[in-house]
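From the thread on structure requests for the teaching lab: each student submitted one protein with a one-line request. Submission from student K.M.:

"Model Ribosomal protein L11 methyltransferase from Aliidiomarina soli, tokens only."
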Amino acid sequence: MPWIQLTVSSDEAHARQLGDVLMANGAQAVTYRDGKDAPIFEPGPGEVQLWDHTLVTGLFDAELNTSAMVKRLEQVKYLGKGFQYKTDQLEDKDWEREWMDNFKPIQFASNLWVVPSWHQAPDPDAANILLDPGMAFGTGTHPTTALCLEWLARQDLQGKTVVDFGCGSGILGIAALKLGAARCVGIDIDRQALIATKENAQRNDVAERFEVYLPSEQPSLAADIVVANVLAGPLQELAPVILGYVGKAGLLCMSGVLSRQADDVMNAYRPAVQFAEVEQRDDWIMLNGQRVSG
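Reply posted by the TA:
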């Protein structure tokens, strides 16, 4: 089926409203893009942050009457006549196949792979995490997740208890269990993340060893290893909570931190944690260390 994209320039204050207007007028999907290459880092809890200059794109059936749509949009108060827009025709493709073809098995260490469900595992004897790509909770393609996976692959996890704080898809906890950990406890504020974690744990045959909890339900335990791939703000604010999971001489691995935020995050955990050398990929870093006090 052929499609038309209608892209409208908006300011941050009205971008979401404009997206709703496009959906109300028949858009099958709406996306938001930065119009000026101005990056956004770490929105606050519950905040949906967009760019000062945002490009809002609606995907429509190719039979869309573009002129009529523009006239309707001109009636929107914050747009008015003469608003900036562009249209693009999209080639009719098998978009599901196109999407799937872009994702291949990814190797994170000699013994650790993430494998989409439509591929065979390249190394059947490795720790293979069966996980399909998705936008919501992470599948290893982002540098922060990759750094944590590579770190886990270097650890002796045999028989260990692991806490996956902010578990998302459960990828880090599943990796730990596949690499020999005896038990993993996943914690996340999002119930949908907990559902995704349980489903992924079942797919990977580790569900019996992977428990999940909301923060209000989280158990007390002293883990051998704690991994937390969230953001710098929560890592600092929740330092007492996260430290509470790190057992005596336990290991802590944290990511979701920009290089300029490293000192602030580490200071929130000192002197209880002695940190190793910072590891960096692109603008993101991974912090890891061992509990030495407290």
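TA comment: The longest strand covers residues 246-258. The chain has two domains: 3-92, 134-291.
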